[in-house]
Amino acid sequence: MREKFSKLVNVYKKYGFIGFCKKLYAYIVANYLNKISFAVFFNPKKYRKQLSDILNSDSFDRIVLWRSSFGYNVPLFQRPQHIANNLSKNRCLVLYEVTTMTDKVKTIKEFGDNLYLINYNNVLLNKILMSELEKVTKPKYIQLYSTDWKLSVQNIKDYMSKGYGFIYEYIDDISPELAGTKNLPQNIVDKYEYAMGNTDVFVVVTADLLREDVINHRGEKNLVMSSNGVDYSFFGSVDENFDYMPEFKSILEKGKPIVCYYGALAKWFDYNLIKKIAATGKYSIVLFGIKYDEAYDENMNGEENVYFLGPVDYKILKNYAAKCDILTIPFVINNITKATSPVKLFEYMALHKPIVTTDMNECRKYESVMRGVDHDDFIAKLDKALELKSDSNYMELLDKEARENDWLEKAKVIINLISKSE
């Protein structure tokens, strides 16, 4: 209960009173009212047949239940959706858990070949699903994020006792800041300790420091590295006739080179660095995303040359980024960012834009990324990035590293890991 209260406080700080009320209402509907569905209650045979038809298809070799309440139709398309999409393209039937706060799926919805959005919170539907799954002899897995705080270890053990493999995606430092709570939710701690102490669990890591942590706990058995990546084909094309928001048009009209960041604005964002860049007067700094916590409002006070434009839908975000001159990740260096594989890094590559970041561990792996070891060096790297805007060799390097990190390859790594036990 303390964890939920802490989360509610953070939601209030992030979205204000009206936004908080909307989120609270959606949460109550999703987690309590939608547990009972009259559609399923009065016609269970319909859903049993639908699920039976899905599960008896010859189009897949294994079944993956994605059980983290990340949601599918959230403003920023992230690793869960990309991995799910690309597992489904590699003969995996993916039953992706939705949150009705964002997805409006009360029962089940086909989203693509071998990809279905499922409301596991619907008690009767979930009961029917588990009953039908028991009849399937193909390999079955439950997959979730290390940051998931909904399922307990006992839930995981219940799945494993029925023959399911457990895929634990260790994707970030285990931190209350990332969980959005004052203290770490116990379910996050328990699942982490279970995964670290059980070599039967398939562990997928996204960063070297996370890999080292796993090896220190349990060795290299059933462990694989699958960093974040990019939908190369999606980011490879932009809408040249896109109608930009008025605020962005006015920034373009100023004529200054635009340094852009998109993503969460949180405590690990280097606000002092942004202020120093702004103070040079040389750049317009554009920030897209959500205020993940109170850090932005505490640190920024309407600085000149800094423009916060809020969240932009994933489908059109690339159009804005493509109009900018330099794409950046200005994070402070701490335990969270040392273990972060930024999704946006690979998207920046596919957009063929010069990239400047702070000296994060995972950014050191890529030749196309210019890293500032301190604030002065970061600003110097921005100047160098402007020079590389039209450098053909640098553009080829960005393209090469983007292609090497397509999400399809990241999903194949996971399949190669689990298929060894099938």
Question: Taking Cα atoms only, what radius of gyration do you get, to the nearest Å?
Answer: 22 Å
What fraction of residues sit in β-strands? 15-25%
| The CATH top-level class label of the largest domain | Alpha Beta
Q: Strand sequence of the main sheet, in spatial order?
A: 3-4-2-1-5-6-7-8
User: Strand tally, please?
Assistant: 14
Within the CATH hierarchy, at the fold level, what is the topology of the largest domain? Answer: Rossmann fold
Shape: globular
> Which sheet architecture does the biggest sheet show?
8 strands, mixed
Please identify, by name, the CATH architecture of the largest domain.
Answer: 3-Layer(aba) Sandwich
Structural class: alpha/beta
Low-confidence segments, given as residue ranges, are none
Separate helix tally: 19
Number of domains: 3
Helix amount, in percent?
A: 40-55%
Distance between the termini: 40 Å
**Average pLDDT across residues?**
92
Description of the structure:
- This protein is 45% helix and 16% strand.
- The protein has 422 residues and is an alpha/beta fold.
- It has 3 domains: 31 residues, no CATH class; 207 residues, Rossmann fold; 174 residues, 3-Layer(aba) Sandwich (Rossmann fold).
